Amino acid sequence: MSRRYLIAGNWKMNGSLAANAGLIDELLAKQEQFPDIDMLVCPASVHLESVHRQIGGEAILLGAQNLSDQVKPGAYTGEVQGAMLAELGCRYVIVGHSERRALYGEDDATVARKFAAAQAVGLIPVLCVGETLDERDRGVTEAVLGRQLGAVLTASGIAAFGHAVIAYEPVWAIGTGRTASPEQAQAAHAYLRGELAVQDAKIANSTQLLYGGSVKADNAAALLSCADVDGGLIGGASLKAAEFLAICAAAQTLS
Ligand code: 13P
User: Fold this and answer.
1) Is 214 in the pocket of ligand 1 (CB under 6 A)?
2) β-pairing, 37-42 with 61-64?
3) Each residue's pLDDT tens digit, 175-207
């Protein structure tokens, strides 16, 4: 079965106007080698406009890393409204990244509000879920994933997942160089898809499930080969054009 992988770069708090321009130049130069994958970049919010201008059309998709849970404009100093991101050319927005959950106190309810706020303005949320090492060691991985996904399912309903992406990012694999094995990734993805399928098998089949956590050029093919892995959410390796392009090439070969 052919499938269209989504290869997403989460640049986190990295980049500069000059560095981003160089990176995007390199991606644009090679982009046509990957006609069967979707390439997404998620720069810092202040860089969205310049990256959007450079990308031009839709050869590379644009996403944000975060948005406000508030849909209407107002007195929310420092926040960025989903509509503002959409106006800047974003199609996607990451919600519930483990760094936001751990460092900025975003709980399941906040993440669920952000997911809904994204969809309210037509953005496709990339909902991040994942267990810590302690949770994996205690054998509660599925309980954690079920709770994180369940909060959004309860708030937005299964139909919302017809316009959403889920990223499984085990916290212990993020930025550590320690990636989940293909078997661990597949098991988590199968569990997540199963949770969706309980409510709607068709939506479960079509929802893209990305794996994130120390994805690199040399492990991408093994992870992307898993039956329920539909793409990757790439941190560190997305900042190096050659690495990111090699991951895209692995996906293109498999698609
Ligand atoms: P790394 O690829 O650097 O482990 O980061 C993964 C991640 O958090 C992507 O959102």
Assistant:
1) yes
2) parallel
3) 888 999 999 999 999 999 999 999 999 999 999
